[in-house]
Amino acid sequence: MSQADATLTAPPPARREKLVTADGTPLRRALERANRRRKLTALALVAPLLAFILIFFAFPIAQMMWRSVDNPQIVNALPRTLQALETWDGQGIPDEPVFAALHADMLEDLDRPRREQAIGPLGIRLNYELSAARSAISRTSRDVPNFEAPFSDAFTDAHRLWGQPELWRIIKREGRPLTASYYVAALDREYDEAGNIVQRDENRRIYVSLFGRTLALSLAITFMTFALGFPIAYFLANLPMRYANLLMIAVLLPFWTSLLVRTSAWIVLLQQQGVINELLVNIGLISDGNRLNMIYNQTGTIIAMTHILLPFMVLPLYSVMRTIPVTYTRAAKSLGATPWTAFRRVYFPQTLPGIGAGGVLVFIISIGYYITPALVGGQSGRMISNEIARHIQQSLNWGLAAALGTMLLVGVLVLYWLYNRLVGADSLKLG
Amino acid sequence: MALPAYYTAKDKIWHYAFRVICFAIFFFLLAPILIMIPLSFNAQPYFTFTREMLTLNPDGYSLRWYQDFLGSDSWMRSIRNSFGIGIAATLLSTSLGTLAALGLSRSEMPAKALIMGVLISPMIVPLIISAAGMFFFFSSINIAQTYLGVVLAHAALGTPFVVITVTATLVGFDHSLTRAAANLGASPTRTFFKITMPLILPGVISGALFAFITSFDEIVVVLFVAGVEQRTIPREMWSGIREDISPTILAVATILVMVSVALLTVVELLRRRGERMRGLSPQ
């Protein structure tokens, strides 16, 4: 036996020639080639989806983010004016050559085919910075062919705005292909006369406080889902599988039910003539005139979103709690810990990965939520997403919408990175 | 489940109090959804129980909101749209997603983490941002307000679910089976359809269901990318809630709850079958 072993393990007679495959290629090269082919096959399988996502998802978002700094309007419309403005010191009204250049720019633009005219976009762009700028531009451009020197008088007669240094400062400042002004506006700042970035007047600050409110609401919702999710996850995790699977339906049914259905359910329950108010009035707890305002405000947003996002907290918590052995708590108790101490010192720390995972997940989802706040949030329950949608659909300030969206996206990606560090994306469980 | 004999009175109170709290939370989860079902049979255009309903008087109940729903052209169109767009988007995302998952679960796949990150990004990016980006891009290539645009958008949103579920199924996949098939002379395509596909089918189906429900329930992208012709059920509900809220919404909601119960059952059965097949079930 030992002799046979010895012959088997004995080193083969030393051979100088390389190992080759049947057709004579060196083994190393054949292996490399085979590995390369397998790598290419794997890539080829992923390629269609990767291309699809890059074209129809990643590219559109990158393009949208680009809008937050893209600033071609003034450069396209007023090349000569910008050149003439280079020597202007920013004080008072520019000299006659600048107005002459403006006249030439506008005249040239009028000769272009309508679709290529740059004056329309210019008016829209300037209007973001200075209201009434759009009407100034459009009214002046109609009269431009009749203007005669001196042009500075002709322009200021056509619209008073041309006589204001503020408009000229904006044209000079924003006469660059890239701009920071959308971000300046998104942070509730503006440029002062000297070109410094300063805070806006108190009553014109919107976005910072809206971001703050979005964060506060998301935190409140995350905390609510934790407060409600933890007990039932614990309860389910400590039930025999048969009962747990049955009761799990109570968590999964809302999860699978249409978002619009759940939101309208809360409207039905919470509105002034809704089920809860009727019930309270009928049993005499509140009078008919004092019906509770539970919807179209922050309360409505928090209640409805807690309900909608609760499964996202319960599911990760449950899967973590299932893996915690009961014996640890028992051991703590047998060593003299009270049930509360055993829970606090032994059980609870082991649930932290689940709390982290569920918490970050709920927070990420709620921070970018749009539908529910839009339907039940009223004015005080609005979130940053609603403001982004308003700028895209109603006020048409796409640059500002892009700036707000980019800030939101960066925030979410940072949180997701954190989530990934905490639990790993692979453990993302569905259903 | 009898209580342990060593429980003190305080333990017992806590034990029952905890149960009451838990059932209150379960009630909070289920009641809002279930309460719409009886209300959808309300004979009056109110969102609350009338006296007739509470006394179980048959006059208090009617099917008028269901008739409203079935007789409305815009609701019927929204049903066709929801299913048409949902099925088309699911087919696209399931086929692309399954292929990608097969590639991703190969050990020789380069830059796996990075590619996975890109592929599941539609699930992470807030919908409002995806919708805004798609709105601008689809308008610029003239597919905004077309069926093609909505299908492509929904397919992109659904793929992460397919990739994740199919990749998870492939974790327990025994690769010696495909090697054996190849060894016996089967071509890669034949191996895929005869060996791999039947084994990963539960994962593919549940991924497809997730993709379908994503599209079926999606509203933000529809609000931005779809035109009047492409209005889906959620889009129709959205205007129902915003403009003239009538109990027709509740009839639709009841039907949708039934759909979700059906889907939940299928997914649950698939999950159990998958666990049994991989010997993961604790029972």
Automatic annotation (TrEMBL), chain A:
**Protein name in the entry:** ABC transporter permease
Q: Which SUPFAM superfamilies match?
A: MetI-like
* Alphabetized Pfam families for the sequence: BPD_transp_1
Family designation: Belongs to the binding-protein-dependent transport system permease family. CysTW subfamily.
Entries under InterPro entries matching the protein:
MetI-like, MetI-like_sf
Entry superkingdom: Bacteria
Q: Which UniProt keywords apply?
A: Cell membrane, Membrane, Transmembrane, Transmembrane helix, Transport
Q: Where are the transmembrane segments?
A: 40-59, 214-237, 243-261, 301-321, 355-376, 396-419
| Membrane disposition | Multi-pass membrane protein
The record places domain ABC transmembrane type-1 at: 211-419
Q: Where in the cell is it found?
A: Cell membrane
Automatic annotation (TrEMBL), chain B:
Keyword tRNA-binding tagged: no
Q: Is Protease among this UniProt entry's keywords? A: no
Question: What topology does the record note for this protein and the membrane?
Answer: Multi-pass membrane protein
Keyword annotations for this protein? Cell inner membrane, Cell membrane, Membrane, Transmembrane, Transmembrane helix, Transport
Judging by the UniProt lineage, the source's domain of life is Bacteria
User: Entry's CDD domains?
Assistant: TM_PBP2 (cd06261)
Compartments, as annotated in UniProt: Cell inner membrane; Cell membrane
Q: Which residues cross the membrane?
A: 20-41, 83-102, 114-138, 150-173, 199-228, 248-270
Q: Which residues form the ABC transmembrane type-1 domain?
A: 79-267
Pfam families recorded: BPD_transp_1 (PF00528)
Give the similarity note.
Belongs to the binding-protein-dependent transport system permease family.
What is the name of this protein?
ABC transporter permease
Source organism per entry reads: Roseinatronobacter alkalisoli
Q: What is the lineage of its organism?
A: Bacteria, Pseudomonadati, Pseudomonadota, Alphaproteobacteria, Rhodobacterales
